[in-house]
Amino acid sequence: MKLIISTIVLLAAIYIGYKFMFRKPSKLPELDLQKWWGAGVRTEGQDDSIRPFKIDFNDSMIADLRQRLKNRRRFTKPLEGTQAQYGMNTDYLETILNYWANDYNFKERAELLNAFPHFKTKIQGLDLHFIHVKPKVDDNKKVLPLLMLHGWPSSSKEFAKVIPILTAPKRGYDIVFEVIAVDLPGYGYSEGTNKKGLNPVQMAIIMRNLMFRIGFTKFYIQGGDWGSQVATHMATLFPENILGYHCNMPVSSRPISYVKLLIGSLFPRLTDPVAHSRVYPLKKYFSYIMRESGYFHIQATKPDTVGVGLTDSPSGLAAYLMEKMAMCSNSEQLDKPHGGLANLDLNDVLDTVTIMWANECVVTATRLYAESFFYPEINILQDIPTEVPMAALKFLYEVVYQPDWIIRDKFPNLVRSTVIDYGGHFAALHTPKEFADDIFAAAEAFIEFHKKEK
């Protein structure tokens, strides 16, 4: 009986896949490349200057935060025999909150971030914050502009450990990077919108216009999490501007890809001899998705409701953000009180939470989930293959995994794929050396690809 069912499923999947395979991809949608996202309506004479900016954890914010942390209500104790299986372990949380209130050095952490040059500029009505680091090298090094895009619940701070590596000469390479690490709209120190529809496609347009403002019409991009979605849409919409795309959460969302995922479950070792156990058997994979995706559904449907508590309570904000950062760093450590958080430097984690708290941006950041499923341009672009050369970096505990034969549905010019048997979702914080090393190697592969194309 099992063989009969498997055969029926296989034949159905092959038929559906055949239908999708020979279906013509959609044309690019017509989009307003200067759509206004600022308050009110567009007016003449908009400021297009690029202004220096400095991060400041000011005294009044720190005093208010510490008071709220010290006056927090008593937490419910974990159930006997549980660690992080029910979410954030409140005994462990108490330790972190005490550290945040008493020992976390706000001023020192801000100054560490201010070691980079920070800027702001208005793009389509929104004031965007970005880090821009130019390498100090002689003329025998080729400087490559690289736009770096983070995800939720992050900011440009996520790249603080890799920027020094990317902007310094590396043995064996004649290239180095000029890094632009941006806060997505509504995240970090970038302004959010009061208008509906600011989805990853629209953010892709904003990011392209930002790079034009800075002075680059051709550049490389790097992205993970929501940053990978924004970067994917950039590569699809503007292939003439994107020289290469490095991704540490590579995903194809084409319909054919889901069919192939099902087919692969019948022959996992053939379709992915290297890391098939990361996605197969599908029963185990779907159980993991169901266990960990509750936050996703809440944020995609009622972000403003959950945002009330997170905006008002630093304890609640820390617990909510850190629980997801923990699981995404190691999903197999729910039997530990930290639930995976110990894989990250605690100061890095608290930097992320502090930036979210100081800017009161958890709602504007979280709304991206709600804006990402109900606009036709998203589905249209997801189903259009892009010819931009792409490099995939796959860490062990990344939240989503796809084999290369599926990634190529969206990125036929997959020039490099790296599978690493450790590390997680916040790769730039967790494994900065491996992350930066792969970007250097990917850039060389992109350059070689374009040489062959010519």
TrEMBL record:
One Gene Ontology cellular component annotation held by this UniProt entry: endoplasmic reticulum membrane
Residues the record marks as active site: 225 (nucleophile), 369 (proton donor), 425 (proton acceptor)
UniProt-annotated location(s): Endoplasmic reticulum membrane; Microsome membrane
Source taxon at top rank: Eukaryota
Domain Epoxide hydrolase N-terminal: 50-159
Keyword Endoplasmic reticulum: yes
Family assignment from sequence similarity: Belongs to the peptidase S33 family.
One record GO biological process: epoxide metabolic process
Source organism: Spodoptera litura
Membrane-topology annotation of the record: Single-pass membrane protein
Keyword line: Aromatic hydrocarbons catabolism, Endoplasmic reticulum, Hydrolase, Membrane
Name of a matching Pfam family: EHN
Catalytic activity from the UniProt record: cis-stilbene oxide + H2O = (1R,2R)-hydrobenzoin; 1-(4-methoxyphenyl)-N-methyl-N-[(3-methyloxetan-3-yl)methyl]methanamine + H2O = 2-{[(4-methoxybenzyl)(methyl)amino]methyl}-2-methylpropane-1,3-diol
Protein name: Epoxide hydrolase
This enzyme's EC code(s): 3.3.2.9
Record GO terms (molecular function): cis-stilbene-oxide hydrolase activity
Role played: Catalyzes juvenile hormone hydrolysis.
